Amino acid sequence: HPATRRHVRYRIEAFHRFLHCQEPPAACAVDWAHWKRRTLAVGAERQAVRLLLPADVAAVRDTLRQRADPADAAVLDLAVLLAVGAGLRASEAAALTLEAVRVARPVLRGMPTAQVLAEGYEIVLEIPDAKTPAGRRFLPLHRLLPADDLDRCLQFLRARHTAARGRRGAPLLGTGATR
Question: Is the pTM of this model over 0.70?
Answer without folding.
Answer: no
